[in-house]
Write a structure and sequence with these properties.
Length: about 210
């Protein structure tokens, strides 16, 4: 039988073993290298290069005691983020469409990112002047969700890669000196927009 150097209890172990378990080993080590007291029980502990200021650091036994409370807080934050991703009601409203669930619902977030990428591509292609970012949803609400080329309705629930999904069509193409200003944008089906490409007589819509 051997005697633990920390708790003075008898235990069975190897010839070189000095402590009955890891808890006594850590406690002995922290006491030997103690630099600051625990914020909860005032026991000396080794602070190390941690990010917590003095007065907020806890020893291992206190961290084990407070672990359920800490896990509960983390679980609450995790469930809130999960509910926001799934679009469930969290007491928040979307900034774009006002739907409950998160500060920006997934369709609005996807549409906003698409508008930002389109603005970046327009800048890369040398647009004359970059106006404010307008998304497909905002453009559809302005144009009453009707394609300006074929005058048929646009279904906003379609996937953005669907041929009949709504897209932003430039009256004056970017390659001809157009910009991303709302006056130069119209709602169009993806198939109609691809069929017209950079030609057509829709530029006359800017006059008057």
């Amino acid at each position: 039988m051997k005697i633990c150097e920390e708790c003075q209890r008898e235990f069975r172990g190897r010839a070189s073993q000095r402590f009955c378990g890891s808890q006594c080993r850590y406690r002995f080590r922290d006491r030997q290298r103690a630099t600051t007291p625990c914020a909860r029980c005032s026991a000396p502990l080794h602070s190390g290069p941690g990010s917590l200021p003095d007065g907020e650091r806890l020893c291992r036994p206190c961290r084990r005691i407070l672990a359920p409370e800490t896990r509960a807080k983390s679980r609450t934050r995790r469930n809130l983020r999960r509910a926001q991703r799934r679009g469930r009601s969290t007491g928040r409203l979307c900034r774009s469409c006002g739907a409950p669930g998160s500060l920006r619902c997934p369709p609005c977030r996807r549409d906003r990112m698409r508008a930002l990428w389109q603005r970046k591509n327009a800048k890369r292609r040398g647009a004359a002047a970059l106006g404010p970012v307008i998304s497909v949803i905002q453009l559809g609400d302005r144009d009453r969700w009707r394609c300006h080329l074929c005058r048929r309705k646009v279904d906003r629930a379609l996937h953005y890669q669907h041929p009949m999904a709504g897209t932003r069509d430039h009256l004056v193409p970017i390659v001809d000196g157009g910009d991303d200003s709302p006056a130069n944008l119209r709602l169009a089906h993806r198939s109609c927009n691809s069929r017209r490409q950079a030609g057509g007589v829709v530029q006359l819509m800017l006059v008057g």
